[in-house]
Amino acid sequence: MAKITLSNLAHSYLPDPQSEDDFALKEMTHDWRDGEAYALLGSSGCGKTTLLNIISGLLRPSHGRVLFDGRDVTDHPTAERNIAQVFQFPVVYDTMTVRENLAFPLKNRGLPAPEIARRVQKVGDMIGMEAVLDRKARGLTADAKQKISLGRGMVREDVNALLFDEPLTVIDPHMKWELRTQLKKLHHDFGHTMIYVTHDQTEALTFADKVVVMYDGRVVQIGTPQELFERPAHTFVGYFIGSPGMNLFDARIDGTKAQIGGTRFDLGTTYPLGGGRVKIGVRPEYIRLSDTGLPARVKRVEDVGRHKIVRLEMDGAEVNAIADESGTVPDGGTHVQFVEGGVNVYENDWRVAARRETEAAA
């Protein structure tokens, strides 16, 4: 296991990058704690796999350093970093049996045969392949082969880190849930540092202790699922996390008063703004239908069983609210109000802490 430090890290695939836009990864400095499970979350093309490949040693960064427990491994090949990596598509040896595939990394490290047999049997049970351990990998389905790949990553107990690059893409939905559960159990039992790349927020939020959200080559927030939900540090985090995501309103703020469209309301505190573009973010869970407040029009209601998603129009923009399953939703015109504590203020897409938050932190 290892603490992973990314120090002034940046990467460009161009030979002579001239501006920040030329970098697939913008400069970042982060410590990833020893023994924690992280999910790298973001949309396609945001830099997740690039960052994972830099950590694993498959790619050397253009700038900065990678350190494992304070030791600079930037120029070390993958084999010297003592990591296990599982890729999006299965990598198996077709001529070997499932058992031989799982045992391969252990044999390479010279472990005694009884220990190899014990670990292979344990992992075979974990991935649900104990009945086919002696079957050749050739001819197995894609999801079965991917389970072998996962098993090869899980079979080692001495690794600095386990890295997963969207490993459940080819796995059927029911098995995805089971394998995520097994990965969490593996982390609980052995305390490996784990980094799991995904664009699926459900995978990220159910797997990780901390979620690392990436956008346009940047890490925009590292936090627990609750932190990402309650206090998104960037408008992208608010939009990307949650279903539906956070509502964002163009706003003007003057002291403790805010204005959206033609309606003013009290925020209850002030925000240290610098004159940039201001938005107010409110999750659907914190919007209430009311007789007073911001005027809105109900367009449709979607009953999803546990609650209702109310689609509204406010000032020409679509707004989402979540109502109780038992609640009634009026047709047509209504108003909305924001639940106290559920409002976030953003300037140029970055969250601005309220004065009272700043005072509490001090």
From TrEMBL:
Gene source species: Palleronia sediminis
Protein name: ABC transporter ATP-binding protein
InterPro entries in the record: AAA+_ATPase (IPR003593), ABC_transporter-like_ATP-bd (IPR003439), ABC_transpr_FbpC (IPR015853), ABC_transpr_MalK/UgpC-like (IPR047641), Mo/tungstate-bd_C_term_dom (IPR008995), NA-bd_OB-fold (IPR012340), OB_MalK-like (IPR040582), P-loop_NTPase (IPR027417)
Top-level taxonomic group: Bacteria
Family from the record: Belongs to the ABC transporter superfamily.
Transmembrane segments: none
CDD domains: ABC_Carb_Solutes_like
Domain ABC transporter intervals: 4-241
GO molecular function, one term: ABC-type ferric iron transporter activity
Alphabetized UniProt keyword annotations: ATP-binding, Cell membrane, Membrane, Nucleotide-binding, Transport
GO cellular component, one term: ATP-binding cassette (ABC) transporter complex, substrate-binding subunit-containing
Pfam families: ABC_tran, OB_MalK
PANTHER family for this protein: ABC TRANSPORTER ATP-BINDING PROTEIN, MALTODEXTRIN IMPORT ATP-BINDING PROTEIN MSMX
